[in-house]
Write a structure and sequence with these properties.
The protein has 296 residues and is of the alpha/beta class. It has 11 helices and 12 strands. The protein has an 8-stranded mixed β-sheet, sandwiched between helices. A two-stranded antiparallel sheet has the order 5-6. It has a two-stranded antiparallel ribbon with strand order 8-9. It is globular, with a radius of gyration of 17 Å. The model has no long low-confidence stretch (mean pLDDT 96).
Length: 296
């Protein structure tokens, strides 16, 4: 059966007020206590979306900024260091911030239909939230190929254990063993797709997604030595379907006349980035067939 096209909204205008408009066009009110999942940026990274830029939309949905600790050495792999960096990057200056896996045991999400992994681990504080707005900085990624909504749902929402579990295709949830057991590019996309599906299922559709295509580097915001942007800013996209949203962003990259796209496409394809779209569609997380609707 052919699914109806998912709606993806697109504007070339990038400013704080426009983010609110791009949320409004979705006509999906997020109920209860709202988590706003962002990427807080590794120490030294210059490309991440800054808190003041996102303040209007977070205030508009009465949201709480949520983040998770990393599984690799850096400035965010322990709660203490992560809190210090959140302060340095001014997230706590403007918002209430909740590190979802700061303390206590993780939540285990079972994935019986998973392509590669059959469970996922997320921070226990996730239970405090009724709905979620995922705001993603769309860019390249040194392991994922690209980072957008699906990456936020998978690696982004994973606890330290969950991140290790995905990066090793289920071989370990111990971050200390991650780099000894790291999986192939293909396996990583499959594990990420499984994890993303589990988070969407956890919130039972009470989610909305916004991708911001600005400061587009080949590297992720988790890289403290990220390369400078290789393309000009493209715009803001929103959808209730994370698969359609990421696919639309990829299509905008591929169809761009910006010569800088070649470097980004090489990064995306060398890491088999589009495979996460295929796997996520197979799982039923969303639909790669979409209608792009321009917002003036």
């Amino acid at each position: 059966m052919i699914r109806p096209k998912s709606k993806v909204y697109f504007t070339k205008t990038i400013n704080p007020q426009k983010i609110i408009e791009m949320y409004e066009v979705l006509k999906r009110r997020l109920p209860g206590k709202v988590a706003v999942k962002i990427h807080s940026g590794e120490k030294g990274n210059q490309n991440f979306l800054k808190p003041l830029f996102l303040k209007q939309i977070v205030d508009y949905v009465h949201g709480t900024i949520v983040e998770c600790n990393t599984a690799y050495e850096g400035s965010r792999n322990t709660t203490e260091k992560h809190k210090a960096l959140l302060k340095e990057h001014e997230w706590t200056k403007y918002f209430d911030v909740d590190i979802l896996d700061a303390v206590g045991s993780d939540i285990t999400l079972e994935i019986p239909n998973g392509i590669l992994i059959k469970r996922n681990y997320i921070g226990k504080n996730t239970k405090k939230y009724d709905s979620c707005l995922v705001i993603s900085h769309f860019k390249g990624h040194q392991m994922g190929g690209f980072g957008g909504a699906l990456k936020q749902l998978s690696i982004g929402f994973g606890s330290s254990a969950g991140k290790a579990y995905q990066h090793t295709a289920g071989k370990t949830d111990d971050p200390k063993k991650l780099w000894d057991l790291v999986c192939s590019d293909k396996e990583l996309k499959e594990a990420m797709a499984d994890a993303a599906y589990s988070v969407v299922n956890f919130f039972k559709g009470k989610m909305a997604f916004i991708n911001i295509m600005a400061n587009i580097s080949i590297d992720c915001d988790c890289d403290g030595n990220a390369q400078e942007p290789c393309m000009k800013d493209i715009g803001i996209l929103s959808s209730t379907d994370p698969v359609a949203l990421d696919k639309a962003c990829l299509d905008l990259i591929y169809n761009s006349k910006d010569k800088g796209k070649e470097k980004l496409i090489e990064r995306i394809e060398s890491k088999l980035g589009p495979h996460i779209i295929e796997c996520s569609e197979q799982l039923g997380t969303g639909n790669s067939n979409y209608e792009l609707i321009n917002v003036p």
